[in-house]
Hints:
With 197 residues, this protein is α+β, with helices and mostly antiparallel strands. The chain has helices at residues 47-54, 134-137, 164-171, and strands at residues 13-17, 23-27, 36-39, 43-46, 66-68, 73-76, 88-89, 95-100, 103-108, 117-120, 192-193. Zinc ion binds next to loops.
Amino acid sequence: MTGKRSAQGSPYFKVRRSRVHGRGAFALRRIRKGTRIVEYLGDRVSHQEADRRYEDRDERDNHTFLFIVDARTVIDAGVGGNDARYMNHSCNPNCETVIEDKRVFVEAIRTIQPGEELNYDYQLGRSPDDPSDVDEIYACHCGQPNCRGTMLWPPKKKPERRRPLSSRAAKEPAKRGTGTARKGKQKLKKRTRTAAR
Length: 197
Ligand SMILES: [Zn+2]
């Protein structure tokens, strides 16, 4: 995981334990503003397939490795992903994600000093059937003065581009809201990272 020699590593950062969340990516050198640091890699699948892979996930699990490329494609970094997936969310990030030719890249939006944790705004999507405490599940601990307290994008800034499970939910009535629905695992819309809006 320490960069240069690892096939999946980046010379710009290494992955280690983060105080923000799980593991994080930390700069190994000074990174100039505008530097393309790493490509977000993983299995490229349809939204339908991504839904299928994560529909049984525990709703309290706040890890997310899915990144929306466009209306057709989602990158699942849980399969064949590289170290880019360890970059944490921040509400005042030093990086941003850029989509180019249907590929996702992480670029520095300011100069980053060695040892700094690399991060970007996940802008996680919301879903009408989110649990009421979804912002707590996806609580942000970035510690920035402008922290919005959640990794989710604020509601109603811009309409969501797609609602895959709402159509499916119509075909599967009464799966939610029944007596046992709140117990254990529950079908939820997959949680996806998105690029700058
Ligand atoms: Zn924050």
